[in-house]
Amino acid sequence: MLALSTTPQFATWIIAGLATLGVILRPFSLPEAVWAVLGAVALLAFGLISPETAASGVLKGTDVYLFLIGMMLLAEIARKEGLFDWLAGIAVRLARGSATRLFLLVYLVGTVVTVFLSNDACAVVLTPAVYAATRAARVENPLPYLFICAFIANAASFVLPISNPANLVVYAAHMPPLTEWLARFALPSALAILATYVVLRLTQNAALKRENLATKIEADRLSGTGRIAGFGIVATALVLLAASAYGCELGLPTFVAGLLTTLLVLAIKRGGALEVVRDVSWSVLPLVAGLFVLVEALERTGLLTLIAGSLRQWGQAAPDAIAWGSGTLVAFLCNFVNNLPAGLIAGAALQQAEVSAKVAGAILIGIDLGPNLSVTGSLATILWLTAIRREGLDVSFWHFFKLGLLMMPPALVLALCGLLLVP
Fold this sequence. Notes:
Layout: H1 2-6, H2 8-25, H3 32-45, H4 51-60, H5 62-80, H6 83-95, H7 99-117, H8 119-136, H9 143-155, H10 165-171, H11 178-203, H12 205-209, H13 224-245, H14 251-269, H15 273-279, H16 284-299, H17 303-317, H18 319-337, H19 339-353, H20 357-369, H21 379-390, H22 397-421
């Protein structure tokens, strides 16, 4: 206890590092949320942060909690009402027995969902639909198709500001106008999406060649409540676009849209609320809260001032070099603390440092694209992992990491090149 009190900064880093390691490795097969919360509790127990500081960290995630609850409600009600099974039948019929055609179709749909509904929605909403499609097509190994949901959720997450909640965190009140955003990120996004597809397709080619997809899939009729769930998802996308255009936070509109859709379906069915509440993956909320507390504690150690000072010093001397360096460094580092809290730190540092648009853009690309390296890099990938576990599947940290080592670096390099080519 004495040692901890004399070296609070070092102790904070040790506890945050151990908690992050627990989230990554999941010792004793305990959920990721357990380790994030244990880290936050340890910081409180040793007096390294005050209850007020912990509460401040938790409250910073309010918009994220609301966003996640809304999306999880939409996904759960859509799954229960057969929307995903209905869409799966359409996808399989369009594939016409071709495993590679189904692969491309899923990738294109994943891109659209990420761009207009966010990367978290891609993980929460699309993953069950893709699994339903592979089941309808009698696919022996669904992982090549499910990997799409994980990787495109990050690769396409900087096409629009709403494509990733981390984008709003990084830029905060200094969000560029939409036309300026598209001019800056259209080319980097296109290169990242293309590079990710090529590498993922090549790495999964052997598995796809072994598949013989079913071709005779009966067309199921979508129920009225299933159509309402679908309309709710489309309406949520429109609400998110409008909220982004007016510079509003996305959490509350998403929560309201998801809750209203769910309540409308339940009112028509006259029951089923307990089943929906029971089956939503609530554990992701304490995971996010724990991560926010860890980041709040790290900020109190002077980390923010150090980062801002370094960015200011080097960004003025060699902007292109610091763009390369900071984008690459952040891409790897966000896999250790998750990219959402990393975005909080980076965003606050960017406001203090007042760096160039290219440096800020490179850091955003690193935060959005870097998490394709590991399952703990982004909240979207953790949500994806939770979704496939519900279907009885799992992907270990090392399995994903070996694939991420092939996937992330080429896309990152090309995206940063595209950013620096933009005038």
